[in-house]
Protein: G-protein coupled receptors family 1 profile domain-containing protein
Organism: Desmophyllum pertusum
Amino acid sequence: MADNVSSSQPGIEEALSFKIFKITLYSLILLLCLAGNSMVVFIVCRTKRMRTPSNLLILNLTLCDLITPLTSIPFDLALEENDYIWPYGRVLCKTLWPLATLSVTSASLTLAFISLDRYRVIMHPFKQRLSSKQVKYSIGMIHLLSLLFVLPYVYYLDLVVQTRACEETWSEFSYRQAYTVALFVVQYGIPLAFMSVMYTITLSNLRLSSGMFESAQPRPLSRVSVDGNMNHSRLDIVSDSQRKASRVTLGQRHDSLVGRDQNIRATKMFVTVVIVFATCRLPNEIFWLWSDFGKGHQIKNVSRIAGIICRMFTYTNSIFNPVIYWIFSKDFQKGFNGIFFSLWKGKRKGSYDDELDQSEKRFHKLSTLSDSISFVWRKFSRSRNEINGPDLGENLAF
């Protein structure tokens, strides 16, 4: 929610150093936000295997992260330099800030829905995953719910002729306060509390299952007799069927390890996104509560500078998310690398696909090399155990 007032009071002028700092930071935030989030949208839309239900939620979050600074920074910067006299007309007065508020609310609810999806995947792994159609329907409901909360803002926001400012025109100031609290609860309070509960339960379950999995490793087949002497006739006891069963168990354990690691990595990624969200959004939420319930609306010069700084924190949130995806997701790493290599080589059509294929091949070679080393090590360990005989009760470590 935004509120602008007339600047006829003395002492409102910003220092030149602060203006330079503000314009530089605004420009940097807008540039990085456009670059990072545009690449995320490109990767998800261009790469076929990335068009999964989970990535549709990331795509929606990314679009919200794009809309917020695009509909705020250029217009707010011009407004601030115009001494807060609204130059855009009545239609944009009722459109710009509500659109930014809509995207912020949708982003918060999308993050909450992602936490619910991660909870379902981890806590109920055998339940059917959400389909793309279900996710698209959920995204539509998120935007519809956000729109309902923004409609009062659209109705009461208007261009005031006397002050030439775009202001909220509530009949009672207490109504404005109530709406500020409602937005705080919907945009920040409830989503953050819900996500905290979901991820706390999810991470606890992952740690518990990880400990149980490690303690449940299979014991090796002993080839040593009870009296400690090697009994060569017992070497034939391990039949082909038992060896096949052992290989099946090994494959299942490997698949379980891979699935568990992927779940842990994805959950950590979204937890990091939530932490950044909570940190970057908190100053602006506190600012609006202070403006309506404290003395923020009375101290105009301090309120304006504080508002600019708090809004910068909100915009910065849009920069961090693509970086988090790149750090935690191998698929996004390959996508970003494909874009960077194609730009660096200066190719034209098909460059991204070529570089993505090369990145896939490099990643496949590394995975094959790692699997080969693990296989040789297991064969070496098995041969050594057949010669020396493993200790009774020893656990195999694959």
